[in-house]
Amino acid sequence: MLRCMLRAKIHMATVTESNLAYEGSITIDEDILNAAGILPYEQVMISNMNNGERFETYVIKGKKGSGEICLNGPTARKGVVGDKVIIFSYVYIEDQKARDFHPTVIKLDEKNRIAGTAK
Length: 119
Known about the structure:
By secondary structure, the chain is mainly β. The chain is built from two helices and nine strands. A hairpin with a 5-residue loop joins β4 and β5.
């Protein structure tokens, strides 16, 4: 049996841009992606702390060190600049391995710099 488990979480990211004209996705600073172990084009779920919206999209790699968290295309309607969001990545794991599995959690400060991590 497989279980769907939280693999990585980027906690309390601040939306820095909202670009309705783009095709769709979320752009995330490359440093943040690397710390979380999330790959470009990977599916993520996003939860907006300000308005309660919860939605799925895929990741685009942003400029390294930029602190960029940009909602693109239709997802731009789900939040505005300054909103706090939590970004989740999930994985399917065999039941026995899931029992000892621990996700990577990246905590960001108000400028989207890595303030802490946990595994």
